[in-house]
TrEMBL record, chain A:
Coiled coil: none annotated. Gene3D superfamilies: Decaprenyl diphosphate synthase-like. It catalyses: n isopentenyl diphosphate + (2E,6E)-farnesyl diphosphate = a di-trans,poly-cis-polyprenyl diphosphate + n diphosphate. CDD domains: Cis_IPPS. The keyword rRNA processing does not apply. GO terms for biological process: polyprenol biosynthetic process. Its EC number is 2.5.1.-. Belongs to the UPP synthase family. GO terms for molecular function: ditrans,polycis-polyprenyl diphosphate synthase [(2E,6E)-farnesyl diphosphate specific] activity. One of its GO terms (cellular component) is dehydrodolichyl diphosphate synthase complex. It comes from Penaeus vannamei (Whiteleg shrimp). This is Alkyl transferase.
Automatic annotation (TrEMBL), chain B:
One of its GO terms (molecular function) is ditrans,polycis-polyprenyl diphosphate synthase [(2E,6E)-farnesyl diphosphate specific] activity. PANTHER family: DEHYDRODOLICHYL DIPHOSPHATE SYNTHASE COMPLEX SUBUNIT NUS1 (PTHR21528:SF0). GO terms for cellular component: dehydrodolichyl diphosphate synthase complex; endoplasmic reticulum membrane. It is found in: Endoplasmic reticulum membrane. This is ditrans,polycis-polyprenyl diphosphate synthase [(2E,6E)-farnesyldiphosphate specific]. Its cofactor is Mg(2+). It comes from Penaeus vannamei.
Length: 321, 251
């Protein structure tokens, strides 16, 4: 099995894909791959076969996305809560992950040719060492590819992510890199595992459950949610077409809401800059003071984020050895 | 130059046009159905008796404690309908209600909401909390009787979501305590309240629109297409579906 499935489309699939590409197509798709175990039970197979089928389906979905022009996919592979599952299932899932990340290394050339970058979101330190190493090697080896992005949320929950980002900010302030007034929505967002990349436009959850289960709570604020009854291993390209059609019908509402939220965020940052200047210079604040404050704030946050990014890369490099 | 492109463009517009057409036909039928129901209700006389709500509620296995209502787009002008939904929810046993729209229109309509709540049900005490950016809250209490159940209504907007988390981060950064889930839980906007187990999005599409990202971890999402078509029957169906949802919590 491989990460890059290449299959020929039937003429009907090809035509529908072409028609949908006329309108706005989501650039970032998030999926909650639910229903692997129910599928296995239905087919009278063991749980792990279900999970393996689930992974195959993911690679298939990635190939559909490439055809449709969706260049980023985030998938919920393993939640921190999933460690509570029976031991043999967790072990099996870990073996599966280690195996699949090892396969990345065998396919590096092909991945580089297609420009596929694989990233991992989550608290990797919770994983067994062999999996950590596999993840780190795969992520480092593909990090310079820049056409298609696959984000795997592994040992991830959104609350843990937000908590970790806040601790990073607190560390930054206590070490003097940041000032408390520098902390804004945008900075917090950039400290998340997703690091301020594009928010998902469309989030699909399969198997009929209608909740987010601690997945991308922050990032999915203005995503179109699409819940479908089909089990994940049984998803077909037509379900994806349906989701995109639904997204297109409501594209403008969401785009407008997102724009407005960014404006509000910008206003709050500007107000906070002015407040800081008032506290420093009293009544004699001039436009230059404010501009200087904005400038120094941006410098500090940029330096902090650069260091945070390097810290994460260094962690991966350390795990590799 | 792609020769086929104009054909695909045409097909794209035809497909979306047909979908819109089909939906508006369905809307018309829905409207007729509603008029029919209203007429028959008038003929039979009387509106929804409280007893019926209680009987419906008794059939359900579980009932949410906290209900979130997310208004998407321009749904906020019909406060009276919103007030009706709150009455049904309270009749079912909901004790916390969060009303959300991203622009903060509901916060500005506070007085109107208060007035409607006052007029509605005689034996329920409401506390309406309007959350503001700077950690202070405005509380309005509508007391109808001392013995009745107590319901908390939150009025929320965009800044109570991500903005409030950023404010929490700022607040924590000047302290020395270590960040953990319990601490964050105690600093959330709706502190002291359970997280919403059920969120109904009013309007299209289904989206959280920035509604309380921290609190919606395990919320079940249901949707109704618009506020003026939100009937008691729809509400009943949603609560029935909710009571069938099983949460595995990762297991």
């Amino acid at each position: 099995m491989t990460w890059l499935v290449e299959k020929n489309r039937s003429w009907a699939e090809w035509a529908v894909a072409r028609i949908l590409r006329v309108g706005p197509v989501p650039r970032h798709l998030a999926v909650i791959m639910d229903g692997n175990r129910r599928y296995a039970r239905k087919e009278h197979q063991d749980t792990l076969t279900g999970h393996t089928r689930g992974f195959h389906k993911l690679t298939e979905v990635l190939s559909w996305c490439r055809d449709l022009g969706i260049n980023e996919v985030t998938a919920y592979a393993f939640s921190i809560e999933n460690f509570k599952r029976p031991r043999h299932e967790v072990e099996g899932l870990m073996d599966l992950a280690a195996e699949k990340f090892a396969e990345v290394l065998e396919e590096l050339e092909k991945l580089a040719k297609h420009g596929v970058c694989i990233r991992a979101l989550g608290n990797l330190t919770l994983l067994p060492e062999r999996v950590q190493q596999g993840v780190a090697e795969a992520v480092l080896a593909t990090k310079d590819n820049d056409k298609y992005f696959i984000n795997l949320a592994i040992a991830y929950t959104s609350r843990e992510e937000i908590g970790t980002a806040m601790s990073e900010l607190c560390r930054g302030v206590s070490e003097g890199q940041l000032q408390a007034s520098d902390i804004s929505e945008e900075l917090l967002e950039k400290c998340l595992y997703t690091g301020g990349t594009r928010d998902p436009d469309l989030l699909i959850r399969t198997s009929g459950e209608v909740r987010l289960s601690d997945f991308l709570l922050w990032q999915s604020g203005f995503s179109c949610l699409f819940f479908t009854k089909v089990l994940w291993p049984e998803v077909t390209i037509w379900h994806l077409f349906g989701a995109i059609f639904y997204y297109q019908r409501h594209y403008h509402t969401l785009a407008e809401a997102r724009r407005e939220s960014l404006n509000v965020r910008q206003c709050m940052v500007e107000e906070s800059d002015i407040d800081v200047c008032h506290a420093k210079f009293g009544e004699k604040v001039t436009a230059e003071h404010i501009a200087a404050q904005t400038c120094s704030r941006t410098e500090r946050t940029d330096a902090f984020l650069k260091e945070l990014y390097e810290k994460r890369i260094n962690y991966l490099k350390k795990v590799c050895k | 130059m792609d020769v086929l492109l104009p054909i695909f463009q045409l097909l794209y517009f035809v497909a979306h046009f047909l979908a819109s057409l089909a939906l508006s036909v369905l809307d018309t039928f829905h409207l007729l159905h509603r008029v029919f129901l209203q007429v028959s209700a008038v003929l039979r006389g009387g509106d929804l008796p409280v007893l019926r709500i209680q009987a419906d509620a008794a059939q359900l296995k579980k009932i949410p404690q906290h209900l979130g209502l997310v208004c998407i787009g321009k749904q906020v002008y019909q406060i009276s309908n919103l007030a009706n939904v709150i009455t049904w929810a309270v009749g079912y046993g909901v004790r916390y209600v969060s009303l959300y729209d991203m622009h903060g229109a509901l916060k500005r309509q506070r007085l109107v909401i208060l007035q409607h709540l006052e007029e509605m049900c005689a034996d329920i005490n409401y506390t309406v909390i309007t959350h503001n950016n700077e950690a202070n809250q405005a509380k309005d209490i509508v007391e109808n009787s001392r013995s009745g159940p107590h319901v908390i209504v939150n009025l929320l907007s965009l800044t109570d979501g991500k903005g409030s988390l950023a404010a929490t981060a700022r607040q924590l950064s000047s302290g020395t305590s270590k960040v953990n889930q319990e601490l964050l839980e105690s600093l959330k906007v709706t502190r002291g309240q359970p997280d919403p187990e059920l969120v109904i999005t009013i309007g299209e599409p289904i989206s959280t629109m920035g509604f309380l990202p921290w609190q919606i971890r395990l919320s079940e999402f249901f949707a109704v297409p618009s506020l003026n078509r939100f009937e008691y029957g729809d509400f009943q169906t949603i609560l029935r579906q909710y009571s069938k949802c099983e949460q595995r919590c990762g297991k």
